[in-house]
Amino acid sequence: MIPFPVLSIITWAPFVGAVLIMFVARHRPLAVRLIALVSTAVSVVLSVFIFVAYEREAAGFQFYEKVPLVPPLGISYELGVDGMSLLMVLLTSVIIFAGVFASWTVATRSQEFYALLLALVTGVYGVFVSLDLFVFFLFYELAVLPMYLLIGIWGSSGEVRPRGIFGWAFRETGVGSKEYAAMKLTLYLLFGSAFILVGIFALYYGTGSGSFSFLELEAASVTPRTQFWVFLAFYIGFGILAGIWPLHTWSPDGHASAPTAVSMLHAGVLMKLGAYGVVRLGMGLLPDGALELAWLVGGVACINVVYGALSAMAQTDLKYVIAYSSVSHMGLVMLGAATLTEAGLNGSVFQMFAHGVMTGLFFALVGLVYEKAHSREIFKMGGFGRAMPGIATAFTVGGLSSLGLPATSGFVAEILTFMGAWRSAHPWWLVPAIAGTFLTAVYVLRVTKQIFWGPPSPHFHHLEDARGPEWVAIVLLTAVIVLFGIAPGIALDPVDTATVPLLSRLVKP
Amino acid sequence: MPLGAYLTLAALVFAIGLFGVLTRRNAVGILLGIELMLNAVNINLVAFARFRTDLAGLIFTLFTISITVAEVAVGLAIVIVLFRVRRTVEADHLDLPRG
Amino acid sequence: MRTGSATLALIVLGLPFASFLLLALVRPLRRSAGAAAGVSITAIAGALVAAILDFRTAVPREPTQSPSTTWAWLPGDGGPMATVGVMVDDLSLTMLLLVTLVSLLVQVYSWAYLHDEPRPSLGRYYAYHSLFAFSMLGLVLAPNFLQMFIFWELVGLCSYLLIGYWYDRPSAARAAVKAFWITKLGDLGFVAGIVMLWSATGTFDFWTLFSMGTMGTLPVELLPCIMFLIYLGAVGKSAQFPLHIWLPDAMEGPTPVSALIHAATMVTAGVFLVNRAFPLFRLTPDVLVLVAWVGAFTALLAASMACVDDDIKRVLAYSTVSQLGLMMAAAGAAAPEAGFMHLVVHGVFKALLFLGAGVVIHVFHTNDVFRMGGLRPWPWTWLPFVVATLALAGVWPLPGFYTKEAILAGVLHAHLTLPFLMLALTSLLTSFYMFRVVFLAFFARPHGHAHTPHVPWLMDYVCRLLAALTLAIGFRMAFFGEHHEGPGWLPAFSLTLAGAGFVLAWAMYHRRVVDPARVAAALWPIDALARRRYFLDAIFAGLYRWVLLTFARLIGWTDRYLVDGVLNVLSAWTLRAGDRVRGLQTGLPQDYVYGVALGVLLLFVLAQWSLR
Questions:
Q1: Residue-wise pLDDT tens digits, A327-365
Q2: Å from B61 to nearest chain C CA?
Q3: Can you tell me the ipTM of this complex?
Q4: Element (H, E) at C63
Q5: Which residue of chain C comes nearest to B24, CA vs CA?
């Protein structure tokens, strides 16, 4: 038994860091970064610690904490992790740690930047470890709201020319600017969270349990009809965050306009929050609803995979390519979950992790390329490999993980998803999933070739490779990709202990 | 004279006052309309006091008269300040609270 | 049936992997090309020693005894979903020898051939070579479909990296990406097939599946479909029609790479797959017939393209495609051992052909055979190449003779008449185009003044070694091997074909009694098509550019301007609605009084109404 509240420390350490930054480190950039580094390092170390200390045979929720908050309403501060959330916590800590390094060169108002980032991360941790739905929602909002400021102030604007029958609307809403992206992202996600809140309350009142605790709601039961609607509400609400088609359009603009660490966190972790919500709350609490609506989740996921990959192929801005790649891979995540099989669900959770790390790496690299070349226009670039071989190598590794090359974590995720897809109630899902792999290979290699290979582009001079702290993020994330690609059992062992019980509740004999 | 007559008179005066408030362009005219409405209320109060032999109505009336006086003073002061700012007392041009 | 030591196999596997890790992670080691080469070559030499030891110490085993040693890789409820390990049987032992030997020779040769490369690049080259050796060895040692697929993809990665070794050349970059994409198309079928197989049987393991097959407990309903899909992987990797188009372009890589990867080892992975999984393919004879037909057709198609190409490496590339077709046809004719034997010997003499070509390329600084010639006075430049040519053409007593005869016998035995005829014609063409190259590259009249060509001794000795090996294998087969029964007329027939090809080439390109241009004019439809690669590259390129990319742009446009457009419209409407409602706030107090008055009136009416 661990004598101290590990999960609370992991969750609140960044927040403490944020508070310290605002009060103690104003106008001292180095102090800001050091405080951020230390607070995220605490979380990283502890999350690795719990990852190792988690008892795989015992399974279930471990490192449990409970503090009643409002007993008459059944709200309490209840934390715990099982195999699934364990991996997600690890993912978050790795990404934010890398993100702190990736944001080292933020120039203006870095203390507010880091403070908001750390507050956001606390929200993310809280969502993954929370076992009380009310507190879950609170943390969820905490994870979404700082996005508005982060993107609106520290983001970058682009230009989108209004075209098509809806072009007039583009002019009016100011598409392309970072303020637009920030507003769209935040409003869209809050719109989704409305559905989630309705679902939570429906469950609270529907089960009559008088408690928001996940464990008690899991034991209670709701009529299949209610389950259907609540699952639908959860699916739409969380799905918006996960980027399901056609409710995904906040994602490309949001990612492209956001500063590097925010993109890393967002594509790497926040979108996984959505998928996690569908699995944990949707499938965990509403088995009948999940069974009934699996066809919808999977079908939309198939669209995501292919549509996202094709859209990525058509982009000319590097950040948009990666943003659409995220949409596509989130489709794979949702597909794996929708298969309602052990292999598929394992694949889904592993894909959350694998893609999270990979996209974190990509955004970090894109941030670096942008910093050195001051452009994101793919077709102006060329031959960067000579000037920045380290970045090129890391980009290639990330790309290979994206297209599911063995020895990267992306492969393990994809093969498990494929295995689950064919065994599911809708075997035809295998076809778009595999097609997605091919399409990903097309656009990833095309972009890599365009940017890094070939003769050096005349538009750019004085390019250089990553330096100093920039290497930390790259090396860390690349190493994680390869490590979990070669030895996936490290992550899959705990995940499997979580998915098997979850599925046993679902697949009724 | 029956109570109804007084009430009708008060209603008429109120209506005239309301009409004046709504349609007069001159700010002072609007204030006059407000005066009429307040006096119509007074007529009502006094009439009820008479027909129910209740002193309360008369006391109410004294209150409203004094408050009316204060309100007129403040109102005219505002009109004067507005005139200084906007150089007009025409109601159409006094749209500072516009949203 | 034999089984070898798993420990030795792991050593064979581990040495190149360790070399790769060292070179990938230790930057100073990699940047110093000499040290990098040393590490890589030592590792592969050690692997060769271990492979030889394993081969020699292999012991016989019972048919019911599994030759695999595995460890859990993907956990699952009630047992691992997938395992990794090594399967050390006759097939893999032979392949271990081939892969390690050719890798070693190629790596040694590369040191001389690429001597002028910048030091860090050369270090990177050797790192890739180590990775490739590890991947290829992992593939041949794979005990199950999943591991084979894993290493299958990894050798594809190495191919991509090595074709694109000179990555600042646009043509090399394009070729590398093309190779990856085309083989990926085949791999889609492969992965679909193995996933379906796993779903039906619960395992990827070869041994378990083979046992199920012999006992009849294999669910056969979807088996033909599954085996066809798995075969698609071989179509891509072993450059069968129509996924052969990447191999000629892969010649953008350095010649030693072409020798190793695109001749002897990686491309043979498809043939190896069919051989390895043959107990399953045997259960789906329809698929095998398809394999044979596609193989024979590929052989003929590629041979025709080899006849008209001027680039020595591309001729050899087409030749490889053609020979791969031959090997596949053997497997399809249910004579996989013949195909496998050809795979092994072909690996040796094809590598020699490429390395020998590397010699002339080095001497003349060009790949164009029409710019070479005049090397007759120096036999050591052309003798190894000619030995290999004779082997490829199938001349007694060289290895190609026996293996080709076995294949033709097998195809005939399976009553595949048209494929047999295609393969026979291919034999003739093979001899023709190879001797065409020999006569043009070595014996043609020299253009400039003749002077002793300078060839690094390392390259020369490697070629000589391979030539000696070819001869040794040939003699071993001639005088000590078992001779399979085939039709009595077959050996004479195949020798005649080889001879005819030689005579044609001699007449056209040495004696010049027959004008190649007139022959080409006489066969002009085929000649024209062959020169344009039968438009297959153009078709794929067109599909990519005009179908895929256009469709992608359409989707991208739809997403930005329609899907997002709807969202922006909703947003714009909200803004406009807000503007309209704002109109109520005129700022004029009189309007507000209006509102209050109306409201009071309404309340009054409602109150009266509800009281009623």
A1: 999 999 999 999 999 999 999 999 999 999 999 999 999
A2: 23
A3: 0.93
A4: none
A5: C590
